[in-house]
Structure formats: structure tokens, C-alpha cells
């Protein structure tokens, strides 16, 4: 009930401050576990992804710095957030996420680990692809833009609604790491695959460190 009320309130607030243009909703599986992996430009990104789903069985990892925040702390607890230490191996959080993924919950996460300081894609971290391959679930790449904090704040100051665009790509799966393989090498290749699939959903100026990646060029050619 709390999640349904929260979703309704969030939708009303978003309608007041932003015009959200969505593409690719048909690519989101209707049931079963999967990972939604998106770029991260602004503070509203997690809320925007949360509003995309009518399901309540989602997993929303939140940076540990917000756990005791007077506003985001209680809000996160109400919505079942998993507090995640971004700078150290957080075994407890990873075990909780894995357990919930295996029972069919949806993981919503940003592979970059934090908001981009450049306004474009930063290097992805391997945690997301590790979890997805271990759980054996598909990944839905998502590209979001128009949510930059400075842009939204400026629009609010001038009583303008922000224009936000979200694009969901087709789900894809990753092969589990096999015995004898170079684990770090495979995780890096998987991460590059994911990040390039996110990059292809974004305008050129948002592609950041992946703008010249050979895999992105292949995806752009296939998408042409």
C-alpha cells in the first residue's frame, strides 16, 4: 500500500515539474526477474525509473550516505531500499540483492555507481553484470537525459517544466563466467557491452567515455 501511495504522489509531482517522454516500454518484461540498468545524470533518475513500473517487487539500491538523511532515509526505508556501500565490497547488500533477484524481483540500478560529474557516460562498474550473470536474468538497458540537476533546478527557478526523455532497449542476457576464464577480463567485456547498449539509446553528447568504443559503433550501424 505504501508503495502504491508513493507512486501516485510521485507521479503527481513529476507531472507538475516535468514532461516525460518514454520510448521502448514494450521492452520491459511483464513478469519474472530482470535488471534495469541506466545511466545516471541527476537525483531524480531513480524516481523516474520507479514510476515506469506498476510492479512492487523491485530492488532499489541506494547509497549508504542517504540512510540517515532526514528525508531520504525514511523514504528509502518505506520503499524497501537496499543501502549500498559504494566504496567498499558490501557483502551483506549483495547477498540481499541476489536473494531477491533469484526470487523474481526487478533490480533497478546505475552501473556507473554515482551521478555523472561530466554530464555524460562515465566508465561502468562490473557489479551489475556480475549480479545479472550470476542470477541468470536478462538486462534491460535504459538511457535517460534531461534530468541533470542543474537543468532541472534552473527550470524550477523559472517555473518551467523540464523535458525528460527515457528510452528502454531490448533485453539481453550475458553468459556466466566459466571455470578457467579470466574473470576480470570477462566482467570488463560484459560491462562494456552493457554500457554501449545504454550509449546507443542516448544522443551523441551523452555517450562520454564510450563515444568511440568499437562495440557502440557496431550497435549504431545495426540500429541504422
Task: Break the fold down into its secondary structure elements and pairings.
Blueprint: H1 2-17, E1 18-23, E2 34-38, H2 45-52, E3 58-59, E4 61-63, H3 72-78, E5 82-84, H4 91-102, E6 106-109, H5 127-135, E7 139-145, H6 149-157, E8 162-168, H7 183-199, H8 214-223
Parallel strand pairs: 1-8, 2-6, 2-7, 3-6, 4-5
Antiparallel strand pairs: 7-8
Helix pairs in contact: 1-2
Low-confidence segments: none
Average pLDDT number: 88
| Basic shape | globular
Structural class: alpha/beta
For the secondary structure, the number of strands is 8
Number of domains: 1
| Radius of gyration, whole Å | 17 Å
Helix content: 25-40%
- Write down the secondary-structure element order: HEEHEEHEHEHEHEHH
Could you describe the largest sheet, including whether it forms a barrel? Answer: 6 strands, mixed
Question: How would you summarize what this structure contains?
Answer:
With 224 residues, the chain is α/β, with parallel strands linked by helices. It has helices at residues 2-17, 45-52, 72-78, 91-102, 127-135, 149-157, 183-199, 214-223, and strands spanning 18-23, 34-38, 58-59, 61-63, 82-84, 106-109, 139-145, 162-168. The strands form two sheets. Strands 1-8-7-2-6-3 form a six-stranded mixed sheet, sandwiched between helices. A two-stranded parallel sheet has the order 4-5.
Describe it.
With 224 residues, the chain is of the alpha/beta class. 39% of the residues lie in helices and 17% in strands. The protein has one domain (2-223). It has a 6-stranded mixed β-sheet, with helices on both faces. Strands 4-5 form a two-stranded parallel sheet. Strand 4, helix 3 and strand 5 (82-84) form a beta-alpha-beta unit. Helix 1 (2-17) crosses helix 2. The mean pLDDT is 88.
Amino acid at each position: 500500500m505504501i508503495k502504491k501511495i508513493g507512486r501516485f504522489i510521485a507521479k503527481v509531482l513529476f507531472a507538475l515539474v516535468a514532461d516525460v517522454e518514454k520510448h521502448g516500454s514494450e521492452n520491459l518484461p511483464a513478469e519474472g526477474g530482470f535488471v534495469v540498468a541506466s545511466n545516471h545524470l541527476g537525483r531524480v533518475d531513480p524516481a523516474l525509473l520507479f514510476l515506469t513500473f506498476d510492479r512492487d517487487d523491485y530492488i532499489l539500491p541506494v547509497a549508504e550516505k542517504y540512510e540517515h538523511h532526514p528525508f531520504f532515509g525514511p523514504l528509502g526505508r518505506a520503499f524497501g531500499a537496499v543501502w549500498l556501500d559504494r566504496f567498499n565490497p558490501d557483502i551483506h547488500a549483495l547477498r540481499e540483492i541476489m536473494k531477491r533477484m533469484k526470487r523474481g524481483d526487478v533490480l533497478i540500478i546505475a552501473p556507473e555507481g554515482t551521478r555523472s560529474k561530466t554530464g555524460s557516460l562515465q566508465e561502468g562498474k562490473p557489479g551489475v553484470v556480475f549480479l545479472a550473470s550470476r542470477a541468470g536474468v536478462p538486462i534491460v538497458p535504459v538511457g535517460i537525459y534531461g534530468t541533470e540537476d542543474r537543468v532541472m533546478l534552473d527550470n524550477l527557478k523559472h517555473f518551467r517544466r523540464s523535458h525528460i526523455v527515457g528510452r528502454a532497449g531490448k533485453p539481453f542476457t550475458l553468459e556466466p563466467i566459466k571455470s578457467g576464464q579470466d574473470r576480470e577480463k570477462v566482467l570488463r567485456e560484459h560491462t562494456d557491452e552493457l554500457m554501449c547498449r545504454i550509449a546507443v539509446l542516448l544522443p551523441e553528447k551523452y555517450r562520454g567515455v564510450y563515444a568511440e568504443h568499437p562495440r557502440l559503433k557496431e550497435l549504431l550501424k545495426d540500429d541504422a
